[in-house]
Amino acid sequence: MTDRSTPLAADQDGPSPRPLVQRIGAILWPSFFAAAVATVVFFIVIDPLVLRDITFPDLDISRQGGYTIAFFMFWAATSASSLFTWILLRPPGRFQGPRR
User: Fold this and answer.
1) What average pLDDT score do residues 41-51 get?
2) Residue 12 counted as domain residue
3) Which residue, of 14, 23, 33, 98, has the fewest CB within 10 Å?
């Protein structure tokens, strides 16, 4: 049996922070899929050319351009949602000083 009366160094420091690429990937990757699904569902109901005629009739935006613009708008919205979730789920003591 192991005596755990003295804490290990890893127990004191807590888990090591994840690499930046992994943190960014955890935000962008799920939001990419959510944006793809949102784009498909949105354009099942709405034609991008009709939407263009209603909102910006003077601009010459193709159907594919409408799909692209909408996808990046959905991706920005879902990325913001993933980022806010990540911020709210961070451990409280990790970025604050020690509690008194």
Assistant:
1) 95
2) no
3) 98
